[in-house]
Task: inverse folding
């Protein structure tokens, strides 16, 4: 059984698409990252998985159940952290925990909620209206975990959490995944987050899923991006050394841009040291650039076939 399976799913809002022809499957027991810029369609997808929106067309299955009809029972098997959490402002954190636990037929002391609170450095004794953004987020995380769900859906879980708490949170996710086989689906726009915990990652943009990659395939053997300004002005693309480093070197009027390709960075730097450098920036490609590179390569291959 798959945890999530989308086949040709579209979601239209009037004349615009939230999601277009989404085809994706998430295995049970997998930690799956869902990456994309603002407005890409991440929350729309998550809201369809959570039955808060219905697909306009296509087939969506969650934990083996079709989303064609309301499936209230399914909610008990899923933990959900929305990107914006709605809470009762006059309750304390502990009262909110008790309230949600009761909805699951549980008492807080039967759950691990207070251990999670300690690990996330969260104080349950404060009124919700007095919580900072980070503390609201921590409460949202604990509420989503309270009933130890089979499938945990996290929409931008780390915004507002400081780095130490983020680290602990990722540790916890890894433990739940290993200990209980919890499937974790989380959306983010931060590469370092998916690198830490995800086995596979999907990239979505403008409502379209561009690609799904295994984490190790995405980052293996990646080149660096170099941005170089030379002492001499003007287009130096015909310079033998630059052509040797990357035959596809580009020039934007001020800077030359190129990739190290499969060459070790030290070889590129040794070659560059023979040029009169005025300014130099070296960076890893962003996740979007990685996906776009893979996407172009894939399409070029498809066109050749
Ligand atoms: N209820 C709605 N009514 C109309 N358009 C919507 C609605 N919800 C989302 N959209 C549109 O669908 C597209 C996808 O939005 P969505 O919120 O899913 O993106 P996202 O990837 O979650 O972005 P963000 O990171 O900014 O939350 C956007 O163009 C958005 O304006």
Result:
């Amino acid at each position: 059984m798959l945890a999530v399976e989308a086949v040709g799913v579209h979601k239209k809002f009037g004349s615009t698409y939230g999601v277009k022809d989404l085809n994706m499957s998430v295995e049970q027991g997998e930690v799956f990252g869902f990456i994309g810029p603002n407005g890409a369609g991440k929350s729309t997808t998550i809201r369809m998985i959570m039955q808060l929106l219905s697909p306009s067309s296509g087939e969506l299955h969650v934990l083996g159940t079709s989303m064609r009809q309301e499936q209230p029972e399914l909610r008990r098997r899923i933990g959900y952290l929305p990107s914006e959490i709605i809470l009762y402002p006059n309750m304390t954190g502990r009262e909110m925990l008790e309230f949600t636990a009761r909805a699951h037929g549980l008492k807080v002391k039967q759950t691990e909620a207070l251990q999670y609170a300690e690990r996330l450095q969260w104080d349950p004794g404060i009124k919700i209206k007095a919580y900072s953004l980070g503390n609201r987020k921590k409460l949202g995380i604990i509420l989503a975990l309270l009933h130890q769900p089979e499938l945990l859906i996290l929409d931008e879980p780390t915004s507002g959490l400081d780095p130490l708490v983020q680290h602990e949170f990722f540790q916890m996710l890894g433990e739940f995944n290993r200990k209980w086989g919890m499937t974790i689906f989380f959306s983010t726009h931060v590469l370092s987050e998916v690198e830490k915990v995800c086995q596979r990652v999907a990239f979505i943009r403008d409502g379209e899923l561009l690609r799904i990659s295994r984490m190790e395939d995405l980052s293996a053997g990646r080149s660096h991006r170099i941005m170089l300004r030379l002492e001499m002005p003007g287009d130096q693309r015909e310079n033998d050394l630059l052509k040797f480093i990357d035959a596809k070197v580009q020039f934007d009027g001020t800077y030359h841009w190129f990739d190290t390709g499969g060459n070790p960075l030290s070889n590129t730097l040794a070659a560059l040291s023979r040029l009169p450098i005025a300014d130099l920036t070296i960076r890893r490609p962003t996740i979007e650039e990685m996906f776009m590179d893979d996407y172009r390569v894939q399409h070029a291959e498809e066109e050749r076939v």
